[in-house]
């Protein structure tokens, strides 16, 4: 039986980048096809944005995170008016920091909400020409009352405090 050839991380990354480039070219062709009609009923979306980031976690497994307003729904590319911003989740001690890029909006246009019992963060932003939407599953339950958010130069930084566990030592049960 022939030995299966293993690929290193750089070969995998080259393969993913090649696949993404092919997919992006296909999306672009399909998108442009929509503008070749008679001009009736064609809705212009403005710019379309697509990007991805590849990171390797401590377990050595690569993670691909997509961002922008191009999504694949049932195998077809769909252009949305809402962009998904690039966001980082940093867990340190009893804090969780979320840093999201939302350029082109004002502080007043941004809404940040903790949902699902402190387990999910939802970021929405809407201005005249830009819309953003992102749901982030948090690595731990947070206290929504202790949350703080800052916005400067298109970067939104949210600091969340982890909820204190009710009882780390457990509860003694009397054996009868």
UniProtKB/TrEMBL annotation:
Keyword vocabulary terms for this entry: Stress response
Molecular function GO terms recorded: unfolded protein binding
Any matching Pfam family: HSP20
CDD domains per UniProt: ACD_sHsps-like
Domain of life the protein comes from: Archaea
InterPro entries: A-crystallin/Hsp20_dom (IPR002068), CS_dom (IPR007052), HSP20-like_chaperone (IPR008978), HSP21-like (IPR044587)
Annotated ranges, domain SHSP: 77-176
Gene Ontology biological-process entries: protein complex oligomerization; protein folding; response to heat; response to hydrogen peroxide; response to salt stress
Domain CS: 82-172
NCBIfam families from the UniProt entry: Hsp20
Family of this protein: Belongs to the small heat shock protein (HSP20) family.
The name this protein goes by in its record: Small heat shock protein hsp20 family
């Amino acid at each position: 039986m022939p030995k299966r050839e293993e690929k290193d991380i750089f070969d995998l990354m080259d393969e993913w980048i090649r696949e993404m480039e092919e997919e992006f070219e296909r999306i672009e062709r399909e998108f442009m096809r929509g503008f070749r009609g008679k001009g009736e009923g064609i809705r212009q979306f403005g710019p379309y944005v697509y990007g991805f980031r590849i990171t390797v976690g401590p377990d050595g497994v690569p993670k691909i995170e997509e961002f922008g307003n191009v999504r694949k729904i049932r195998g077809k590319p769909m252009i949305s008016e809402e962009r998904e911003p690039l966001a980082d989740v940093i867990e340190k001690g009893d804090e969780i920091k979320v840093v999201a890029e939302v350029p082109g909006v004002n502080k007043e246009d941004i809404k940040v909400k903790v949902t699902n019992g402190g387990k999910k963060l939802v970021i929405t932003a809407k201005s005249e020409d830009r819309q953003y939407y992102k749901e982030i599953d948090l690595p731990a339950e947070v206290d929504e009352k202790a949350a703080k958010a800052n916005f400067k130069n298109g970067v939104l930084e949210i600091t969340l405090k982890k909820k204190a566990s009710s009882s780390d030592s457990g509860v003694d049960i009397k054996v009868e």
